[in-house]
Amino acid sequence: MDQELKRYRNFLKDSIRKTIDFSQTDQSRGLPAPPLEKPYSPDSEMIKLKSLNWTEIFPLKLSEAIRNRESRRKYTGEAVDLTELSFLLWSVQGIRYIAGGHGFRNVPSAGCRHALETYLAVFNVENLDPGIYRYLPLTHELVMEFAEENLREKIIKASFDQFFTGNSAVMFIWTAIPYRMEWRYGLDSHKVIAMDAGHVGQNLYLACEAIGAGTCAIGAYDQEYFDELLQLDGEEEFVIYAAPVGKIR
Questions:
Q1: Distance of alpha carbon 110 from alpha carbon 189, whole angstroms
Q2: What is the C-alpha to C-alpha distance for residues 32 and 22, in angstroms, rounded to an integer?
Q3: Among 4, 113, 174, 191, which has the highest number of CB atoms less than 10 A from its own CB?
Q4: pLDDT score for 210
Q5: Which domain CATH number covers 203?
Q6: 148 and 131 in contact (C-beta within 8 Å)?
Q7: How far apart are CA 106 and CA 93, in angstroms?
Q8: For 168-181, what is each residue's pLDDT tens digit?
Q9: Is there a domain that residue 182 lies in?
């Protein structure tokens, strides 16, 4: 077998756990845990999201959402409203409660470490100016990161000219902050970060079905360009997954 293929296959296995000295992780050494969410400037523009009884607002049965789920790349151009966006964000990263320094969310994460941040490239969301936003799960708010000229075109370029990404109402973009997981698991962190991304992606698929929207998870993107577009350093934080969301017929 080609050695490069073998190396990548081994990444999928859990055999590395046998060789790790977990007594040397930063958690075991008594170093403080990294924050539950990325800090932001106190001068940032904040948008309060809706917190409602989602069962009453979007009563779609889980079995229907699972049966109807598919990757959707054609969107009507209709806007997503703030109630719908609030529900989607709550579904993929909403916090239920905090205990013992952990934020227990609506998606699972290895050791409850939740190494992901959720960014939005907003194109057509009611009452939101176009631009790049970030979700703050601790307070269920959005922080406006920055406006960006020609954002649709740049998102399309970042996704290797998959044009449907720029035709969406909003693009969900997940970044990884690896140290949140490395603090506890060291070299065993990176496989489970990828697994965590899969959890949030599936929740977005199912939540979209409840609001009459569609999504299509994006794993092919220009890593360096996307990181630069979101103003990330590409080392301590970088894009790991993305998914455009738009209304469907």
A1: 9
A2: 16
A3: 113
A4: 96
A5: 3.40.109.10
A6: yes
A7: 6
A8: 999 999 999 999 99
A9: yes
Please state whether beta strands 141-146 and 46-48 pair in parallel, antiparallel, or not at all (unpaired). antiparallel
- Residue 111 phi/psi, 5-degree rounding, is 65, 15
Q: Would you say residue 75 lies in a domain?
A: yes
Of 35, 191, 24, the closest CA to residue 113 belongs to 35
**What are 169-214's pLDDT values in tens digits?**
999 999 999 999 999 999 999 999 999 999 999 999 999 999 999 9
Residue type, 113: R
- Quick check: 75 pLDDT over 90? yes
Residue 130, domain extent: 44-247
Prediction pTM value: 0.96
SS (H, E, C) 75-142: CCCCCECHHHHHHHHHHHHCEEEEECCEEEECCCCHHHCCCEEEEEEECCECCCCCEEEEEECCCCEE
Q: Looking at residue 91, what is its pLDDT?
A: 98
- Measured between alpha carbons, how far is 4 from 63 in angstroms, rounded to an integer? 41
Task: Name every residue whose Cβ is closer than 8 Å to that of residue 23 and which is 6 or more positions away in sequence.
Answer: none
CB 170 within 8 A of CB 236: no
| 53/224 Cα distance (integer angstroms) | 40
**219-234 confidence digits (pLDDT tens):** 999 999 999 999 999 9
CB 169 within 8 A of CB 80: yes
State the number of CA atoms in the 13 A half-sphere of 176 facing the CB.
20
Residues 182, 192: Cα–Cα separation, whole Å: 10
Tokens for 132, please give them.
């790049």
Domain count, the chain: 1
